[in-house]
Amino acid sequence: MKVDETSRKTDETRGPGRRLHGAIAHRLGTDILSGKYAPGEVLSGEVAFAEELKVSRSAYREAIQVLTAKGLVASRPKAGTRVLPRERWNLLDPDVLGWAFAGKPDIEFVRSLFELRAIVEPAAARFAARRRDKDDLKTMKDALAAMRRHTLTTDAGRAADRDFHNAILTATRNDALMVLSASIGAAVNWTTQFKQRARALPRNPIPDHVRVYDAIAAGDENAAAEAMNVLVDLALEDTRSAIEDRDAPQTQPDALAEE
After folding, report:
1. Distance CA 47, CA 52 (A)
2. Per the confidence metrics, is the pTM higher than 0.70?
3. DSSP labels, 129-162
């Protein structure tokens, strides 16, 4: 079957049927997010696609249902499956975020994610400084310790990073903000992974997280908001730099200069 191996790993704990349609959804979702299939375009028919991917028609239909639920496509009898306008896409869905970063992400989309974080996370840090309890602080502190122990180059370190940001949203005691935890966590995870594809992280961001924690632990609302604002701004600069490095033409060493 010609589906992406990465998606198979992400679904390895599921049954064979769920792994299969999850892999197909990953393939199609990645193609849509990358622009291979543009909004308004009609996908190949069920039979043709099933034959191309060498999968059953039922698995393909289940994958389309996944994409439909995420706002990427709409299926109608006789009209086929059409890619919906981008404004209909659930871009904050963790799977959709993963598909967006599976290839080369659009810089404008990356910027929009960081603008969202810049709006939400400093305010969340301010509320957390006001409302956190000892359990919240312990969760943040444990996450920081795991980030130091594993580093952000590992899955365990990035999971700890997500735990840290999730703990801050939880400490706000604001249900509407807490709903964003999966989306914020996914955005943090994928941008961190992206920054490391072509090179090592340009700097160690853990001290930025420590400053946020220290301000929240001290109950200093203004300092917590400012520290988080700096953390998000620096993360955006690191990500933009990674995209620019990836776009830069590769030059061959000058043989004469080496002599």
Report:
1. 9
2. yes
3. HHH--HHHHHHHHHHHHHHHHH-TTSHHHHHHHH
